[in-house]
């Protein structure tokens, strides 16, 4: 994008005297009186006058320099994207993608815990679903108040 320095054909660090000399030289060359009927001469002279107005004023010149710096910073190309992995192992390698492994491992543990809790809540207790075992004779003999003895289911 052309700047006022380009219009006057001077360097960015040109002195005010150098800017004035460049303006006079271009004004004499492109003045509409020296090129009657040339529409481009009128446009060129308007651009030269605008450039000189800005570059001859120190404050406006500083603003113009700031605009140039900002424009050059935004026009820098964006950094290139990282290339795609060559194979599936490069994509799934734990050293580079450990956060995904951590996330999915945590989710697996959480889902397993929830599923186990739901299963244990939905299923009745196993001890309650079977009839109570009869006490052994040795147990009953130790308690004389009961008076009756029943043989043990398990003979040893």
Automatic annotation (TrEMBL):
Sequence ranges assigned to domain J in this UniProt record: 3-68
Alphabetically ordered keywords of this record: Membrane, Transmembrane, Transmembrane helix
Membrane-spanning segments: 100-122
UniProt-listed SUPFAM superfamilies: Chaperone J-domain (SSF46565)
Highest taxon of the lineage: Bacteria
InterPro entries documented for this protein: DjlA_DnaK_co-chaperone, DnaJ_domain, J_dom_sf
Keyword Ribosomal protein: no
PROSITE patterns per record: DNAJ_2 (PS50076)
Protein's name according to its UniProt entry: J domain-containing protein
Source organism per UniProt: Ramlibacter cellulosilyticus
